[in-house]
Amino acid sequence: MIAQTNRWQWRCLALVLCTCAGPAWAADAPVTNATLAELRVWFTVMAAVAVVLIGVFWSRGLSWFGALAALVLLGSSARLWLTQPLWFPRLEISADPPENLIMLMILAAQAVLTGVVLVRPAGREAVRGLFARAGTVRLFLLMVLVAVFCLSATPYVAYGYFMAFGLQIGVGGALSLVQMATLVAMFAVAGPDRMPRIPVSALAVFAAVASAVLAWTAFDRAPHVEDELAYLFQARTFAAGTLWAPVPPEAAQPALEYYLLEVHEGKWISVPAQGWAVVLSLGVLIGEPWVINPILTGISVWLAHDIVRHAVSRERADMVALLMATSPWVLAVGATLMNHALMLVTVLLAWWCLLRAGEGSARRAVLLAFAAGLALGWGFFTRPLDGLIVGGLTGLWLLRRLPGGVGQVLACGVGGILSGSAVFLFNYGITGDPLLTAQADYLSRLWPDTQNAFGFGENVGPPAQSWGALDIWVGHSPAEAVLNLINAIASLNLELLGWTFGSLVPIWIGFIWGKKLTGFDRAMLVIFAVLVAVLFFYWFTGTFYLGPRYWHTALLPALVLSAAGIEAIHDRLSGQYRGRLNCVVLLLCAVSVVSFTSWRGVSKYDGYGGYTGDIRRQVEAADLGNALVFVSTEGDIGSALYLNDPFLPEGKPIFLRDMSPQQNAAIIAAFPGREVVYLRDSE
After folding, report:
1. Taking all residues of the chain, what is their mean pLDDT, rounded to a whole number?
2. For the chain, which residues make up each domain, given as ranges?
């Protein structure tokens, strides 16, 4: 009888594990870019850091706090180990590899030790002090939000794994509850009660250096999605002083074909908006295009701090800068060749100029307004929709304030028109029509029966079944819009701060507890809400690579509201706990950088999408000179094509997709006198 009961228990456990892992099996796709050996090294480093944490606090007589701090790190790392990092993150709980069971034991130990602390008199007192005025309904609502948005619903809806989705919510919510309880326990033991003030200059430098390290290591200074290759192609043509490259020989065009690159009407062009590529061309000119975004990341931290310091307070600004400089989302975007970091800087620079315009003479206000307009216009040139939304809302705010009179409004408008009109000039130069973008022209031929547009309908979006789970239904509908919204919120909840129990917890607490918002807070909320509302009508949400990157322009509003939520917690604490709160936040930020960001680098960004720097390293180790290099790879051919000079000049190798023998022979004939090399690369 006992043996039969045990068999049923194991069968139930197996059913739960299989149900949780079901979508991964249905997708039949790898769940991580890391090998098991690499993950073991990563977790060993996390364990070593946890030991250091214990030692540091033990030496100061704060042994319990050190043990709980180590549990925060180890518990977060254990949960990340069990999380599938690619596409739509979710828990992958199984008995294979056996380390999974160790991670579950760590999480169980965290729950036990946290419970031991909380059941003590000091623990019960801390719970009462922290939640005396919270209310049961508010706490319940908070936990519902934490559980529901701990993962994306998209793959479960796509493959029909609704039971698995419910189990994931339950398990994820329970783990988040344990992690948050550990933070509560840290108020019940002796610990630090004063967070050291970190200069904003140090945070800005840290963000720039951390992004650069990520770019050099995990991202390997190479594109990882088609967009990045397209931007780099543009930047190289612009650095040469032209809008397009000459058309390659006809025989070679199939071997050079790539998404977002087009040969049309005697031009070889890259089709995305050009504002970022113009700036990226500066990196091309110095031979290191990858350094531009880390520099912009450091600048954005400084700008954000100064904006919030002027608009709200130094305390809020310090918190926003800390959250921003340690945000895995910010650091990852800064390590790529994508355009989001530049878009963020243009917006922040414009707001910084307008806030500064209220200081000093009217002439100074007009000049700063003109500079703000230039920044907003360049944002429109970089990401037209984002620029239109933020520029329009900023203009309404400016009309309401008028610190420099009507002249300031006119100056801002003139600046915006001057730089923003580059969109129309480039359109005219490339497509011959100022109102027709190269991308719209390209997609009209690539997707002749559908359109890359806003709104609902069966013809909105890519051709049916061509984007898999990224676009699971034909066209775009309100139901898909809601699903995309849930997916983006879940992604932001994971990526924004890298707090595994929920990055949006501070924002939810701020709203649930009724934090009184300043005028600046309300302005940030409006910007965030309008951007999200507009994108509700777009068929795609790009969360699979860099989190909800279409929302990245609203980064400052998200961080300002997060800091306001932390203030809401601070305001409701008794005096004895307020100093501890900032120390706990600092610990969470440190854990985010040490654990979450490194996990992302190891398990996702390294080799993401089949892009690696391996081909580049092979080329650097060999003298290919003037060779034609036919590449066959199990990864993405973009890993080779991005190495091409768009002008295919003599003296530099040309990288091509390895075609059939007949096609290769035709290509060789089109480039007479070049050495021929066949390169086989395994991902």
Report:
1. 88
2. 12-191, 455-570
